[in-house]
Amino acid sequence: MFAVPAAAAQAVVAYSGLEIAEPWPGRAICSLAFVRYADGDLGPYHEFAVAFLVRPPGTPPPSGRLGRLHGMRGVGAFIHWLPVNQEFTLECGRSIWGFPKELADIPMDLAGRVKRCAVQVGGRTAVEIAVRPGAPMPGGAGAPKVDAYSCLDGVTRRTPWTLAPSDVRMRPGGAKVTLGDHPVAEELRALGLDRARALSSTTVGHLSMSFDPAEEVAP
């Protein structure tokens, strides 16, 4: 998770009609994540995600310190970029939930203490990330229910998302991001991710997830 300029983040997600959440004035939250899916309805595959915290559609912007704290209730994750390395999950993700999946090479090295991932599209590197695990978190740590938002072909959707994580470790900082020459790399560079220190990094040893049907929303 990174704190990035809210105006720059809003410009990135403007096509969705959604509004960026600001936990601090002028700052937004951008998350980078990589997942190795081992077993599920969509088969085994690798996935990378660029996401932003957004306010639920139709909610007014909060004001004041307490207003901002209350305004973070119910925030969702807008999935801006979601490369995967298998065709079946690409087709299902786009047709069933409207997730912006695209095909990419996503090599991962999860065997060592430092977890590494890269995303390469058409021979061009978009991003490389290395995450150092932190301290173990108590059982049940994490967010069990989140609204995932996406926008594909001009249609914005909300998908209720349930997570059950275990073997969770968290730390301040702990992530090294290297950006390449792909257009998404330039987008992340404009957010300052080539020089930003992560607010926190989380590794999850095992994670089960389920997605409800997607619903179209009017931002």
TrEMBL record:
GO terms for molecular function: lyase activity. Pfam families: ADC. InterPro entries: Acetoacetate_decarboxylase, ADC_dom_sf. Gene3D superfamilies: Acetoacetate decarboxylase-like. This is Acetoacetate decarboxylase. It comes from Actinomadura verrucosospora. The lineage of its organism: Bacteria, Bacillati, Actinomycetota, Actinomycetes, Streptosporangiales.
